[in-house]
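Comment thread on ticket #2218

A.B. wrote:
> Attaching the input chain for the structure job we discussed in standup.
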Amino acid sequence: MIKAIVFDIGGVLEITPRTGWVERWEQQLGLAADSINQQLHDLWLGGSIGTISEQVVEAGIAERLGLDSSQLAAFLADLWAEYLGKLNAELAEFFASLRPRYTTAILSNSFVGARQREQAAYGFEDICDLIIYSHEEGLKKPDPAFYRLACERLKVQPHEMIFLDDIDVVVEAARNLGIKAIHYHSNQQAIAEIQALLAAA
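C.D. wrote:
> Ran it. Output below, let me know if you need it in another format.
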């Protein structure tokens, strides 16, 4: 029996195409291609698992790239615009409709500051029972411990959970634990596969 249904955010509940903002900043600052992500790699990693605060991330960006306060504000605006993308309204509505028949949750590889911004933009906390963010837990998909944490929080066994994500290795890792994981390709496909699993349970 399925008891819990868990969705990813980026590329699933949020439509997040690449905006080219990093490349634009490299050109604007006269930096080599791919250099920004290399220079900020440890900040991106630390921010994604919460080992550093949002304030430390922002200070590090400004220092390493030599940005003044207005440039930093513009840089962060571009970063969050791509991160948040736009709401996948059809899928979010379907996700919300699964309550209260099922316990629903979000399991997201995230970044410091994401909870507040995503709640303000899309109200994710209002459409599901639980949100588990990597930056708040110090774990990331596809680490098996992150999925086990989700099962523990939701009080379910892996085979009692449906999980929807758009990344191959993340889906495969969930399946390896016995979770009924679906690889997201489109709303129609994902909704049909979820409904089929629920009907068969």
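A.B. wrote:
> Thanks. Noting for the ticket: DSSP finds eleven helices and seven strands in the chain.
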